[in-house]
Amino acid sequence: PIYWALVSAALEGVVNYVTFGMTLGNVINSPRSYRDGTSKSLTLESGYSEATTRALEEMGFELADYDLGFSSHVGSLAGVQINEDGSFWALGDFRRMYGASAY
Predict the structure, then answer these.
(1) pTM assigned to the model
(2) How far apart are CA 70 and CA 34, in angstroms?
């Protein structure tokens, strides 16, 4: 179901922001992956290294969409960041031409 794609996108976004210190813009528009349950099919947008895609294929995954900049099979995000000066910065995902605003 599509809601699992959103859950995985949100989790990837939180990990990228907290663990890797990515900016909100990079988090929202970074490449994503999605695996439906126990299937060996893995949607993997372009932007992952060749070493990563090769390792995944060696593990038996069948990669889908890895040659596409954005896949319609992954979740999309929008985010709002509150800056230290109290201002807001909002960004929508390029995948679905999302918009975001904050005030």
Answers:
(1) 0.73
(2) 12
